[in-house]
Design brief:
It is a single chain. By secondary structure, the protein is an alpha+beta fold. About 15% of the residues lie in helices and about 40% in strands. The protein has one domain. The protein has 6 helices and 14 strands. Strands 1, 2, 3, 4, 5, 6, 7, 8, 9, 10, 11, 12, 13 and 14 form a 14-stranded antiparallel β-sheet that branches. The radius of gyration is 21 Å and the shape is globular. The termini are far apart. Keywords: Signal.
């Protein structure tokens, strides 16, 4: 081999090694946002969408959050779709760069499920800075029976970027009915603005947030292989879903096409969903003082 050919070989090898170690290189493992910065910024506005029932689907669910980790496995059947929950900003406060890139792609379609009551006592503390500044007190609640399973979807064929998809496709939340103890929360006002590109042209909505009706907690579906770096964040994602009231709608209903993102449900057909005004708002909370890690 000539000296020139040898030099070219070494140059090519050096280039390959450099690409392999560069941040964001094609061979890099999919990443995930840090737990507390992501969880504390995820607010989901939930719209009523009855009228569709998926093909018969049975799922086995395992709790991911440490506080509920000792609860047994559950087998549930997907029932009628009840809600579509989409990411919003509150009072014009947009999640910071690097976090909003993930938050804006979290769309969850929620289906009726049934199960036994767990009667698990919890104290819920708000994590979002906007709500914390309002001085909303902790809530003492009892976790009752599961009512919904919320799973990741895309709207109108707009898929997240690959590095975001590898994270959001593993967000599954099981929503339990709550018994709220003590004095009910006094309704407080918020202004909600859409973050997802598909709904970016929808006007902001003024809502009054009432008592939490459900707690949605992270679960994994059997056969869903969640990467460790993704699991490290999604296991902390708890949302308290509270009823909201709004003024009469000034815009008409919007029809959306939903596509399932989670690998376990990717065989399900696309769905049409019509939304008008939100009926609930999912706000991030911590359970029993267990705050998600910052990193």
């Amino acid at each position: 081999m000539s000296r020139r050919s040898t030099s070219r070989c070494f140059a090519a090898l050096a280039s390959l090694l450099l690409v392999a170690v560069l941040p964001g290189a094609a061979t890099a493992a999919p990443g995930a946002p840090p737990p507390l910065p992501f969880v504390s910024q995820l607010d989901l506005s939930c719209y009523k969408t009855e009228g569709y029932k998926p093909p018969p689907t049975e799922l086995t669910l395992k709790h991911l959050n440490p506080v509920l980790g000792k609860l047994p496995l559950e087998t549930v059947k997907l029932g009628e779709r009840l809600q579509l929950c989409v990411p919003v900003a509150k009072n014009g406060v947009i999640p910071p760069p690097g976090i909003v890139d993930y938050v804006r792609w979290v769309d969850l379609s929620c289906y009726r499920i049934e199960g036994r009551s767990v009667d698990f006592p919890l104290t819920l503390s708000h994590l979002n800075p906007v709500v914390q500044k309002l001085g909303i007190q902790d809530s003492h609640v009892t976790l009752l029976s599961p009512e919904q399973l919320c799973v990741p979807v895309a709207k109108n064929g707009k898929l997240p970027p690959p590095e975001i998809l590898s994270f959001v496709r593993h967000i599954d939340l099981e929503c339990y009915a709550l018994r709220v103890l003590g004095i009910p929360t006094i309704p407080f006002p918020l202004t909600l603005g859409h973050l997802n590109p598909v709904l970016a042209d929808r006007p902001k909505v003024d809502v009054k947030v009432g008592n939490a009706r459900q707690l949605c907690v992270p679960v994994a579906k059997r056969a869903d292989e969640i990467p460790p770096e993704v699991l490290g964040t999604v296991q902390w994602l708890d949302l308290a879903k509270a009823d909201v009231s709004t003024a009469p709608s000034v815009v008409g209903p919007l029809t959306l096409k939903l596509t399932h993102l989670n690998p376990v449900l990717s065989h399900l057909p696309g769905e049409a969903a019509v939304i008008t005004e939100p009926v609930q708002l999912g706000l991030p909370v911590a359970k029993n003082g267990k705050i998600p890690p910052r990193e």
